[in-house]
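[Discussion] Sanity-checking designs against the backbone

I'm trying to build intuition for which residues belong where. Below is a structure token string of 215 positions. I'd appreciate it if someone posts a full sequence so I can compare it with mine line by line.
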């Protein structure tokens, strides 16, 4: 049986309370089975550090396999990073309804299976249902698609999601900021993703252009 949503009151890093009569800022983060679980976990950490948003977490069965294999983290450790944890089978959860206000949703990483489900409106679990809700409510959906090379089905599914208003955001590392570690590359990408929601951390300054060498 699906488990009910798990609500936590966590400090420090507890999201700021919204003014009376207004909904708090909420952001859905889903981790699926593609490689790159570190992106989803780092996004949760950044949201916790910001203290500005209530995070809602979803992790697919394949996502858990990737989290454990790539990061060595168990469920308790990942759950502790989120404010609300949803069971992916609980299609009656709050985030399955458009009446539950959110800023949008990030799927990081996004498997090709999840991409296909979103592209075709196949709401077979809470991840694809929540994404469908975000699109129909004209909220922001960001998919960190992870696959290479890409076949025609992948490309067409990305096109379909883009035409529906979603953002296809492959986590391609940047080198213009001269990263010195994998952690810096991950943080740069995660910061760019949060910038899609106006939540870029101060540690991710915007590009100011190349500085010309002194003559």
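Best answer:
Here's mine. Compare freely.
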């Amino acid at each position: 049986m699906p488990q009910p949503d798990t609500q936590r009151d966590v400090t420090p890093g507890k999201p700021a309370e919204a003014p009376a009569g207004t909904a708090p800022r909420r952001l859905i983060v889903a981790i699926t089975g593609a490689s790159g679980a570190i992106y989803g976990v780092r996004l949760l950490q950044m949201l916790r550090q910001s203290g500005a948003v209530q995070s809602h977490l979803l992790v697919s069965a394949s996502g858990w396999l990737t989290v454990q294999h790539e990061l060595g983290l168990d469920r308790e450790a990942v759950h502790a990073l989120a404010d609300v944890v949803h069971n992916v089978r609980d299609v009656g959860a709050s985030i399955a309804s458009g009446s539950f206000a959110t800023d949008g949703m990030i799927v990081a990483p996004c498997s090709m299976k999840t991409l296909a489900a979103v592209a075709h409106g196949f709401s077979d679990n809470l991840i694809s249902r929540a994404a469908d809700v975000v699109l129909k409510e004209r909220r922001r959906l960001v998919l960190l698609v992870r696959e290479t090379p890409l076949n025609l089905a992948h490309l067409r599914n990305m096109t379909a999601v883009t035409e529906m208003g979603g953002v296809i955001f492959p986590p391609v590392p940047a080198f213009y900021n001269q990263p010195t570690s994998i952690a810096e590359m991950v943080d740069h990408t995660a910061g760019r993703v949060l910038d899609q929601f106006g939540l870029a951390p101060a540690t991710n300054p915007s590009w100011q252009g190349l500085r010309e060498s002194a003559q």
